[in-house]
Amino acid sequence: MRHFSYFLSFCLFNFLVIPHGKSSNTSAVCVDIINQTCKTCADESASFNYNFCLTSLQTVPVSHATNLQGLALVAMELALQNASNTVSSIKELLTNTTSFDPFAFACLEDCMELYLGAVLTIVDSVGAFLSEHYINAKLWLSLVVESATTCEEGFAEKKGEVSPLTKKNHDLIQLCNTALCIIHLLTHAIPS
């Protein structure tokens, strides 16, 4: 999993630091682009969490001086970190067989499969995004949202069962929604 993170960090570094030949109307401006972007996304969707968006993106210092493309990559990098960390957490939980009943254990196994797929899908999304295949990037990020939702809903199928992954699922969904909104803003800023 670590090599995926290195790959994305390399791509993010090159995308944000190495100058590109063409400029666009979405290039970095002096305004705090994180606040502006999160506010725009929150204004467009009642379910979008402005505070989560702001707090998450602010954890990466380079995001304060980047453009929309860079912010989308930051959000996807954070989603990849979340998904990779969740895989590690699930592995640890699965080694503790006495802590979970058979139903919860089966749910964790399902979540492991979903999250392993999510990691690969996020990497594919980044590749599609960097190739300017924005529709594919959005489709694959939407699939990651579905995976986290499915993981969470699996535990809810048994009355009284509590998911040990609720926060991680929620965070992954919010990070993907942040990336999806930014890509949406980016594609609507580009003339057809």
UniProtKB/TrEMBL annotation:
<dbReference type="InterPro" id="IPR006501">
    <property type="entry name" value="Pectinesterase_inhib_dom"/>
</dbReference>
<dbReference type="GO" id="GO:0004857">
    <property type="term" value="F:enzyme inhibitor activity"/>
</dbReference>
<keyword id="KW-0732">Signal</keyword>
<feature type="domain" description="Pectinesterase inhibitor">
    <location>
        <begin position="29"/>
        <end position="182"/>
    </location>
</feature>
<dbReference type="InterPro" id="IPR035513">
    <property type="entry name" value="Invertase/methylesterase_inhib"/>
</dbReference>
<dbReference type="InterPro" id="IPR034088">
    <property type="entry name" value="Pla_a_1-like"/>
</dbReference>
<protein>
    <recommendedName>
        <fullName>Pectinesterase inhibitor domain-containing protein</fullName>
    </recommendedName>
</protein>
<dbReference type="GO" id="GO:0005576">
    <property type="term" value="C:extracellular region"/>
</dbReference>
<keyword id="KW-1015">Disulfide bond</keyword>
<feature type="signal peptide">
    <location>
        <begin position="1"/>
        <end position="23"/>
    </location>
</feature>
<dbReference type="Pfam" id="PF04043">
    <property type="entry name" value="PMEI"/>
</dbReference>
<comment type="similarity">
    <text>Belongs to the PMEI family.</text>
</comment>
